[in-house]
Amino acid sequence: MKKVLFTLILVAVTVANLMAQPRRSIVKVRMSDNSRIAVSIDDRYYDKQGTSITIGDLPAGRHYIKIYRYTPYATGRGGKARVVYSGGIRLSAGTITEMTYDVRRNDIYATTEFIDDSYDNRNDRWDDRRDDRRDDRRDDRWDDRRDDRDDVYGNNGRYNRVWTQQDMSDLKRRVDDRIGDSDKQKLVEGVLKDRRYTTEQMRSILSWFSFESTKVAVAKWGYDNVSDKQNYWKLESEFTFTSSKEEFNSYINGRR
């Protein structure tokens, strides 16, 4: 009887320990054209190459991922890896995240599913709702600070709010939580639509994006509310390609 009781206690303790362990997450990465790729996460390079790479046993939280286009050498020994995407990703506990790099749009798309039971799903949905409420409270704090500052008129006659360095820091933290450039762009434009900012602040914002096409789009969009339009042409230096420089200059020259 004592032996059976001891066994039951041991099993119960083992199960409790397993349940107490943090739930790990999985990431699956591929490219839309099914090219061979390699991947690194948090500067750790995984010795895997293929059209789809799965990396498991990752802790929940913020990670930094790089996706490489991998071209094997003709000898069959090794290959050449070129970075096509780098950026942050936030993993929830007990999830599998599938990331696809779209080679035509130069953007990353991700979907997340829970891999635990329904109880864990409810917990994670609660975490998501809690994160949303925290973001809403942060937005409210921005609005409170914004209302306390002096207003200045924009060129279109409506009130525009002064944009501060603290606002920049708050927005940067939120942008870092987004995966793809399209989500980052939507967030930035939504927050800045009734603010006034300087050319140098916009220069910092452009550095948060991975792709030049997004930088050009955001720079063009941001012209209306910039407080020092006479300096806005200096953002040309943020673009690498001549076509991007010409597109940007053509746009702001047409708005003068």
Question: How would you characterize the overall build of this protein?
Answer:
The chain has 256 residues and is of the alpha+beta class. The chain folds into two domains: 2-116, Substrate Binding Domain Of DNAk, Chain A, domain 1, CATH 2.60.34; 149-255, no CATH class. It has seven helices and eleven strands. The strands form three sheets. Strands 4-1-7-8 form a four-stranded mixed β-sheet. Strands 3-2-5-6 form a four-stranded antiparallel β-sheet, with no helix packed on it. The N and C termini lie far apart (91 Å). Residues 117-129 and 142-159 have low confidence and may be disordered.
List the helices and strands and how they pair.
Layout: H1 2-20, E1 25-31, E2 37-41, E3 44-45, E4 52-58, E5 61-72, E6 79-91, E7 95-102, E8 107-114, H2 118-148, E9 151-153, E10 159-162, H3 165-176, H4 181-192, E11 195-196, H5 199-206, H6 212-221, H7 242-255
Parallel strand pairs: 1-7, 10-11
Antiparallel strand pairs: 1-4, 2-3, 2-5, 5-6, 7-8, 9-10
Taken in chain order, the helices and strands follow as HEEEEEEEEHEEHHEHHH
What average pLDDT do the residues reach?
A: 77
Strand order of the largest sheet: 4-1-7-8
From the alpha carbons, calculate the radius of gyration and give it in angstroms. Answer: 24 Å
The end-to-end distance, rounded to whole angstroms, is 91 Å
Overall number of strands: 11
CATH class of the largest domain: Mainly Beta
Helix content: 40-55%
Which CATH architecture of the largest domain is right? Answer: Sandwich
Note poorly predicted spans: 117-129, 142-159
Largest sheet: 4 strands, mixed
Structural class: alpha+beta
**How many distinct helices?**
7
CATH topology of the largest domain: Substrate Binding Domain Of DNAk, Chain A, domain 1
β-sheet strand percentage: 25-35%
The number of domains is 2
Which shape, going by the Cα principal axes? globular
